[in-house]
């Protein structure tokens, strides 16, 4: 079982704030995600700036693309993104179109998707999914439970590289012990910490302690 | 039955191209949509620029928001958007959060949504949905058919103001004759026309001829 990656989600409202955080912790994390909020606020230059700072790090454009897969994918690749996300309710033609343009396409799992749909994504050559606790669901009192862990395991069993995200902390990582999680994604778990460098380091060390 | 609105979708890759088109036809159309591609490419300034050009026109930010409803909605309202879109696979808490911030929230219907879900959106006070033929589905040979028209009518019967979009032309408008469609959305139907002003005028006149 490989050691899971640590991915930081930059969901800032301004590029300045995003840069300020990623400047501190960029070398600690494995993958940098230019979050949807940041993409919508700053456009192309958000991805371009992060790529300029980290020429060889994996950068994800979290576009949650729902349509026009070719155009959206070509645009983010042109800015320097390696991977991008599509929403689970995008049609298969949209996913196929996007997949051809990027190194890896990740399906974002929100709402009422099914394992049948997941199988159809695998059939068109998609290797990665992102299992979510939505921020708004968390704010409404939701949390990681048995049901979530079971679904993550089912996705792994289908052959997906599974990223998990939503309200993760150093403490909740151990819930996934023994599971072949590909990547843990956190935003505020690092950026809202009193000491982001310490927080990122603790995430990395805890992952290594459990899976190393 | 009210006369349906005509909405232009600005799905350009650059603000310059979008402005060039909307400058010509902005006064003819009823609603201006800052498309997802344009939002992702140019960020905030796309909405701000369109608002600056048309101080009193309805402007929609087509964010297809899937999470962080409050933040995304607040951000687009700050730029001058009146309405915004969420994706159908967003959770109800995300939709509720976004709905509180904007004048109207529109649910974008992609993939395998159900009428049961539509009822739950109505119950939390959402009045508008957008029925889609996705661009990629159209490229794969899909088109408007009996099934689409029936679903649009079902949504109208549920009490939604329904916008329809995807490969619409002056000729296909008559397919919806007798239906209480709220808005027809077209992008390339106007922007890719040899004469965009003539195309927009023809759309408006045809709508008026059928529903007036």
UniProtKB/TrEMBL annotation, chains A, B:
Family: Belongs to the HPS/KGPDC family. HPS subfamily.
Name this polypeptide is given: 3-hexulose-6-phosphate synthase
Enzyme Commission number(s) from the entry: 4.1.2.43
Signal peptide: none
Pathways per UniProt: One-carbon metabolism; formaldehyde assimilation via RuMP pathway; D-fructose 6-phosphate from D-ribulose 5-phosphate and formaldehyde: step 1/2
One function term, GO molecular function aspect: hexulose-6-phosphate synthase activity
Entry superkingdom: Bacteria
Organism in which the protein naturally occurs: Vagococcus coleopterorum
């Amino acid at each position: 079982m490989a050691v899971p990656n640590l991915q930081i989600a930059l969901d800032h409202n301004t590029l300045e704030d995003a840069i300020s955080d990623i400047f501190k912790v960029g070398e600690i994390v494995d993958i940098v995600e230019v979050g949807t909020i940041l993409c919508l606020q700053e456009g192309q230059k958000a991805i371009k700036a992060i790529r300029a700072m980290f020429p060889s790090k994996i950068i994800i454009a979290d576009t949650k693309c729902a349509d026009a897969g070719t155009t959206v994918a070509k645009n983010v690749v042109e800015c320097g993104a390696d991977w991008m996300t599509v929403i689970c309710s995008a049609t298969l033609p949209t996913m196929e179109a996007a997949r051809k343009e990027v190194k890896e396409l990740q399906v974002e799992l929100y709402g009422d998707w099914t394992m049948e749909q997941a199988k159809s994504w695998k059939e068109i050559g998609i290797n990665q999914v992102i299992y979510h606790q939505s921020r708004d669901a968390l704010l409404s009192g939701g949390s990681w439970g048995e049901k979530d862990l079971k679904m993550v395991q089912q996705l792994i069993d289908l052959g997906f590289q599974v990223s998990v995200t939503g309200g993760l902390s150093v403490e909740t990582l151990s819930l996934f012990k023994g599971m072949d999680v590909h990547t843990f994604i956190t935003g505020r778990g690092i950026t809202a910490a009193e000491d982001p460098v310490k927080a990122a380091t603790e995430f990395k060390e805890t992952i290594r302690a459990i899976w190393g």
